[in-house]
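[SOLVED] Need 3D model of a two-part complex

Original post:
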Amino acid sequence: MAPEGRALHLNAFIQGVGHHEAAWRHPETDPGRLTDVRYFQEVARVAERGLFDSVFFADALSLTEDVRYQPVRRPEPVTLLAAIAVATERIGLIATASTTFTEPYNLARQFASVDHISGGRAGWNIVTSSATSAAYNFGLREQPAHHDRYVRADEFIEVVTKLWDSWEDDAIIGDRAGGVYADPGKVHAIDHDGPLLRVRGPLNVPRSPQGRPVLVQAGSSEEGRDFAARHAEAIFTAQQDLGDAIAFATDVRRRAAASGRDPGTLRILPGLSAVIGDTEEAAQARGRELDELAIPDYGLLQLRRLAGVDLSGLRLDAPVPPGLFNGDDVESSKSRRALVAEIVRRERPTVRGLLRRLAGARGHRVVAGTPEQIADQIQTWFEAGAADGFNIMAPYLPGGLELFVDHVVPELRRRGLFRTAYEGSTLREHYGLPRPASRYATPDATLNAAARP
Amino acid sequence: MAPEGRALHLNAFIQGVGHHEAAWRHPETDPGRLTDVRYFQEVARVAERGLFDSVFFADALSLTEDVRYQPVRRPEPVTLLAAIAVATERIGLIATASTTFTEPYNLARQFASVDHISGGRAGWNIVTSSATSAAYNFGLREQPAHHDRYVRADEFIEVVTKLWDSWEDDAIIGDRAGGVYADPGKVHAIDHDGPLLRVRGPLNVPRSPQGRPVLVQAGSSEEGRDFAARHAEAIFTAQQDLGDAIAFATDVRRRAAASGRDPGTLRILPGLSAVIGDTEEAAQARGRELDELAIPDYGLLQLRRLAGVDLSGLRLDAPVPPGLFNGDDVESSKSRRALVAEIVRRERPTVRGLLRRLAGARGHRVVAGTPEQIADQIQTWFEAGAADGFNIMAPYLPGGLELFVDHVVPELRRRGLFRTAYEGSTLREHYGLPRPASRYATPDATLNAAARP
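Solution:
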């Protein structure tokens, strides 16, 4: 249906009551529902009505001082996924969890459990937790170094995938008459004894429907790209410019090939905040309405965290000083800072202009327009190889996502770009990813599996 | 409704397809559903139909070699609770989680999240994880010492309850027009800096409906009792004998009073496996039917783990040798071993007899009889002060629980012993426990709360 047989993928990034930082002040949102699980179930069902591949929750392991200006995060994402799983049928469910501040046995088990609970729809967005404020909640006096976090993440992924593989697919026999529940020869200790982690296994949950939940990654630093190239099956990324996005996709696929992977199995989804209106003017007015609700003090707080320097001398209507983002920041990711530095280099905004620029989607691309114009952008990037799909960041929720589902998705479908029905039932099937075999699968098991009708 | 105004409490302990070790071989169970979340939702709804206070999942952080003989554990309990929460309305939801092998920030957040997701029905069964096999999954070469685990558990509880308190109840202002979401003065860093844990806080989830999820505990060692006396609001315990149960309850309440707590706020629930039949003979026949499905090799495996010694010289029809449980065991809890040693001392069974004795409910009390006879036992223990209620362990599920709900619960109600409707909507309300105030509540907040209509 899509050009060259490629399929377009859509993920709904669910963030609070919307990605615009002032969404909670918008009359169409209800921030009082942010601890009400039914709100999240409803948003997920909107995305499922649109036949999205997945919904996704970002995460951070600390509370920053934003609480005055911004609704606090919702329930913890893994528990939230479990609650959404049983209120949806087909849509994939991706949650963020940290390799730095969790134990691999617990994490492997919880994601395998969500995969069971959802019938094969779980995905794990792997993060290494860049914020120092998170380190303070886990016994540390400072943030572990960027490189050290990625070293642990590599070994962590190895342990988690071993645990997911520790039960072969046909380990359960279930012979009630003979009194044999499972074949112990097909349930494997992993005996991992590495530089940082020692885990014996096996996991205490049988292999999950997808074999392994889908691995997702969003880091764009050099090390983040290499890590994604080695492990990620879907990649979320912030890209402002078509050329940069093509270069990013080309680079990551090249790195994947260098790691011995088939680069065609990576799904790259840049973020896209779509502000939708019946006319371009109406869309832009909606965007302005949100921008005007943004609180400058909040924007400056965010900017200070991004720059890692004192901003008290800054005037809102003066240009952003060059070199503002050259400092040694501790509270945001390198790649995030590089993205904003690039916006400043390219557009030379005033401080107020930059705050407005970031208010829409924290540095992700914002497009305001008619459903046809949004679809044009999606089509252009997709056909140019800049994207396998998009991480849709509705400026306000659920209304902004409803507009996308009811107006942009049908337009994409009219152009033959997007599915008209779910063809599979697992997240792997939606993304067109293979189901991995267990690394412990015995030749016998393979023969038995092949011999099955 | 109950004698002296006391209320009887019932918890449904959900274990696999039943507590009898052969339940999975029984024709009325379906072990194939143990990874199907709908099975657990259905069992929870049966308990809710019976107006039980709560359902409960035990847990262990390893897989033992039992896999040949026993269905593996279900999805991880916290994710499972979230999925059950949204399929039930009123029943409390208790999951086990370890203070030894989790991070307090993650645990506090997940239980607060389940409390939000369920509208105030979460409880945490605190364990310190006694199995060496669990230690092997978390980087250790041996199990941490019993005392050291409890020292960590004490500090862990302190941190978790501080995190649950870190948002005052009225911290969220939600002033959209004024642009003030929350009052930062009512969201507190906890700045915990203890011997073992350092956690800054605050939690990144607002205070949950119960303030704090209910704290449950089941350890019966000396240290376990002291720990329960200091922290637990509900206590699950294995008691075979009325006199011992009264002594246990008296002892724990005395310790609670010594810790400065009101001993009347502890809810003590001994385990009870009820094998129910229309006649006593029918109930006993049902029990025998299950016992005959038990696999002696599995029983011996369990016994070996409990005794911590080689059993190869043991003959099934010889008496259990005295001193079998004097060894230095590493794979089961001290109190569990003491319980079984006491059964041996009292009943002097053969090895086969002991295996049968343990097959029903792993050392918990098994009563076979008519609904009236089961109700008699419950009434006797309740009125004697041996129990505030019972941890009902159906020998097979969901059938065994359905019999209890449909026949024993109505009999308890006829006797005026059990509720005829849920009076509250939170687990705390079901158990008659107070809702704790935040330790950080400011005098102003208290005044404001008092001044509310």
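Edit: Chain A touches chain B through 74 residues (CB under 8 Å).
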